[in-house]
Amino acid sequence: MAEKVHHDHREPSLSSDDPTTAHYDNEKHINDQPHIAGVHQDSSLVASKAEEDAVFRKLDWHLLPFVFILYSLSVLDRSNLGNARLAGLEERINLTGWRYNWLGTIFYIAYILFQWLLMGWKRFPAHIYCAIAVFGWGVIATVQAGVTGWGSLMACRFLLGIFEAMFGPGVPLYLSFFYPRDKVGFRHGVFISGAAMANAYGGALAYGISQIKSSHIEPWQILFIIEGLPTCCIAFVAFYVLPDSLSKAKFLSDREKQIAAAAIARNQVADPDRATGFQYKHVLAALKDPKSYIPGVMYFSCNVSFASLPLFVPTIISQMGAFTKIQSNGLSAPPYVLCFFMILLLTWLSDRFNKRAPFIIFASLVAAIGFIMQATCTGVVPRYVGVFLSVQVFCCVALTLAWVSNIHSTESKRAGGMTVLATLGQFGPLLGTNVFPASEKPFYRKGMWISAAFCLLITFCSALLATILIFQNRKMEKSGVIPRKGEAQDGLRDRGADGVPKYRYIW
């Protein structure tokens, strides 16, 4: 029989039946649980762990596939430039010198300037905000097929950056509205894995499109149209599918909503009705918190190493000397397929063991080895293997996003923390898109060494942040703010200067 979990007790709450992965949270009395509009508050609520897990599986099936598809389309529409380049775009609009690099750079300039738009996920109804963002970038992505010169394509890339800044950076914040801190890592992994899958099927799709012969429209134009129009259509689906909050999730019963809200509130501040609105003081607290900035440096480093890869991997493979341009588009897919499965595996393990740093360190070291192989080897096989390893740096992105959600315990503070993360992080592509100049081919050694160095910086920052969080946990234990592991909970409600309850940090 399943173990019963009563949300009114003071005993340690286990996140798993396996004692090696158990962690203890600050339990709240049922009267402290968030009220859900239109739902009868059952003071005698008793739910088994199996029932609680079933509620989150139901959320998974309704939320994750859709945000996965949306993000894969987002990444596809921003990164298909690399495939279009090999499909004839370079010759059509004369992408000589640094012109191609600037097409990548201008996108990220807009992406950085408009990172603050992610707060719209907390400020406005999610289904409306998301639909506008998706439709906007879908239209711009499709319009790229009609450009006649470098200037018009630059304008399209800038506008594309604005609409995508509304979407991608805010989804991790959105998911944190629906899941407890110890379950959000894998969900972020599913979301982020959409990028890896987009780069995988994007390469395969580009290979197929390159085979299309037409006297009226060029392959690169067909590529932009075929990959842009579906995004415009799915925006209307987003309007009707995405729930704004836990209380408005029509696919959950009243009991399921209360079970989910109680689970979310165990180790963070839940707001199932979005009733608290946008708390500027919590955003300010996140901006003042030094712990907000180390993940930003990590994300910056991830993006230096990874953001340039979708734009340059097909070119890097074509410069190995053994493949045609069309074959290089197809061969750019398998490394991202491996990355897709690695993201899911590492984020699942991270939630299972309730740790972030060890898995980020592992992925960053694997990626560093891959870049070093490409920088030092001249043979086709080791260089291609190096591509498989180097793209694993993207696993660090999913784990870092989950870590930021764990550091901040309110939705508004997470919005502030995510804004710091995204703003600092998106400066990375400004460097990353310019470390593989044409003058460095065929080996691009400078770019490979730079990318390897930033992978090692991710390793260092992860170890540093973990050390800080372990120290702060022990400090809070000694002062009685949180119980020591293994001790019974006593309903502690200590709050920091920002008025936010104190919880054990996940490192």
TrEMBL record:
Its main location: membrane. Residues 1-27 are annotated as: Disordered. It comes from the Eukaryota. The chain crosses the membrane at residues 59-76, 100-119, 126-146, 158-178, 190-210, 222-242, 293-313, 333-350, 357-375, 381-404, 416-436, 448-471. Keywords: Membrane, Transmembrane, Transmembrane helix, Transport. Residues 1-12 have a biased composition (Basic and acidic residues). GO terms for cellular component: membrane. One of its GO terms (molecular function) is transmembrane transporter activity. It is a multi-pass membrane protein. It is found in: Membrane. The lineage of its organism: Eukaryota, Fungi, Dikarya, Ascomycota, Pezizomycotina. InterPro entries: MFS, MFS_trans_sf. PANTHER family: PERMEASE-RELATED, TRANSPORTER, PUTATIVE (AFU_ORTHOLOGUE AFUA_6G08340)-RELATED. This is High-affinity nicotinic acid transporter. SUPFAM superfamilies: MFS general substrate transporter (SSF103473).
